[in-house]
Design goal:
Layout (H helix, E strand, L loop, with lengths): L4 H14 L4 E5 L2 H13 L2 E9 L2 E8 L12 E3 L8 E2 L13 E6 L2 E4 H7 L3 E7 L1
Antiparallel strand pairs: 1-3, 2-3, 4-8, 5-8, 6-7, 6-8
Length: 131
């Protein structure tokens, strides 16, 4: 049984990138689906789609690689964990890695990247960082 779906999803994407796989499968939840859509929007992965197999749902993620064959994602890091939640205000999530990275934040307006959360003027739980 998986206790932390976000950590599991990040680890699956990270491992698939290290093995140079084209596609990986994630366990479905609304938060993982929103996170995958943000990764597509920011250009870290090619695409993601939800696959329904009867009652069970999964998310297929197509990974993205640069011209040299290296993964576009340099680092994915889980910040807020089940044992230790981390919350930040809007000013603290303004920029990450001088604008080259993205912080995914769970806010009262849903799961958002740091730039949209700053525009809306909301902070929240920092789920993970990607660059």
């Amino acid at each position: 049984m998986i206790n932390d779906l976000v950590s599991d999803a990040l680890t699956r994407i990270r491992n698939a990138g290290m093995r140079r796989l084209d596609v990986t499968t994630l366990v479905h939840s609304k938060s993982i689906e929103a996170m995958a859509n943000i990764l597509v929007e920011k250009g870290y992965i090619e695409s993601s789609n939800v696959v329904e197999d009867g009652v069970k749902k999964t998310i297929n993620v197509v990974l993205k690689y640069g011209e040299n064959g290296k993964s576009v994602i340099n680092e994915m890091k889980r910040i807020s964990k089940p044992g230790r939640r981390v919350y930040k205000g809007k000013e603290e999530i303004k920029r990450f890695k001088n604008g080259y990275g993205t912080i995914i934040v769970s806010t009262s307006h849903g799961i958002l990247p740091n730039d949209k959360a700053f525009q809306l003027g909301v902070g929240g739980e920092v789920m993970c960082t990607i660059w």
